[in-house]
């Protein structure tokens, strides 16, 4: 017999696990702090990789639904020097293995694949504690509790489940993003739209970069990366959008105007996204009845692997539980022994929410190294 599974967190990883469990007839309940599926924006685009994210969706039986939301042409990439010189202009020829989708649409596919009532909304966890014999109690902000014999923390960077397994906490990596949107870009922001092209833009430079995606609906989503201490950002009043924009833009004085327009011409107030990470190779000793997946287990950088790894973790854990009916510990051991080296093998850069910056970031890092070495 399969034990009912309690999942904390209805992100992509937790939902992938819930869906694979449902496919195998294993009872599952997901508790989510957000009040509804639309309580907040879900971030930008994600490239879903053929070697992990797509395999998770296949295990979930959702490949057809996934292909239906792919944004065609978005695997194109342009790399520009700060002065606007085009260093790379790569078209999307349809052969790439990392198609782009909107995160919110992908999450909705997973939600729609679960029976009504699987996700319990508005259930913010305030704490967890061990009861012995593999049982754990979860306490919610409203004072209510649930007791479970199989608990999975899929609750992200600041997981309330992680302390049951590990004393590790995320630390600031030294770099943050400042996020902006430009709407109706082709007509209202033509120079920036041309610079971005049909897919992704990277403008690398040591200690400061500009990234942008062309999302659906003629929207440009820009991420300005700055390597600065937290107190540097704390001195900026992000409640004053104009002042914050001007301060960030000053860090890019002398850059091509079509690039700085992604900062100065934003149609939304700039949003600060500090980056955090768990120690590389984070792991724990086996604790009966509980495990972690995704950022709760291996918070790392926006290298395109965060969401993919979370879904793959969820699918692999679901498959392991299905393969070991009546032996939870065998399933959790099998899952963790594969998950630890898998996550440790991914290069790190930051943490927090994966904002949609995909693995082309590694291309930018190579260009940054080149620029540094040549003194450009």
TrEMBL record:
<dbReference type="InterPro" id="IPR002938">
    <property type="entry name" value="FAD-bd"/>
</dbReference>
<comment type="similarity">
    <text>Belongs to the aromatic-ring hydroxylase family. TetX subfamily.</text>
</comment>
<comment type="function">
    <text>An FAD-requiring monooxygenase active on some tetracycline antibiotic derivatives, which leads to their inactivation. Hydroxylates carbon 11a of tetracycline and some analogs.</text>
</comment>
<feature type="binding site">
    <location>
        <position position="295"/>
    </location>
    <ligand>
        <name>FAD</name>
    </ligand>
</feature>
<keyword id="KW-0285">Flavoprotein</keyword>
<protein>
    <recommendedName>
        <fullName>Flavin-dependent monooxygenase</fullName>
        <ecNumber>1.14.13.-</ecNumber>
    </recommendedName>
</protein>
<feature type="binding site">
    <location>
        <position position="47"/>
    </location>
    <ligand>
        <name>FAD</name>
    </ligand>
</feature>
<comment type="subunit">
    <text>Monomer.</text>
</comment>
<dbReference type="InterPro" id="IPR036188">
    <property type="entry name" value="FAD/NAD-bd_sf"/>
</dbReference>
<keyword id="KW-0274">FAD</keyword>
<dbReference type="InterPro" id="IPR043683">
    <property type="entry name" value="TetX_monooxygenase"/>
</dbReference>
<dbReference type="Pfam" id="PF01494">
    <property type="entry name" value="FAD_binding_3"/>
</dbReference>
<keyword id="KW-0560">Oxidoreductase</keyword>
<feature type="binding site">
    <location>
        <position position="103"/>
    </location>
    <ligand>
        <name>FAD</name>
    </ligand>
</feature>
<keyword id="KW-0521">NADP</keyword>
<keyword id="KW-0963">Cytoplasm</keyword>
<feature type="domain" description="FAD-binding">
    <location>
        <begin position="4"/>
        <end position="344"/>
    </location>
</feature>
<keyword id="KW-0547">Nucleotide-binding</keyword>
<feature type="binding site">
    <location>
        <position position="40"/>
    </location>
    <ligand>
        <name>NADPH</name>
    </ligand>
</feature>
<keyword id="KW-0503">Monooxygenase</keyword>
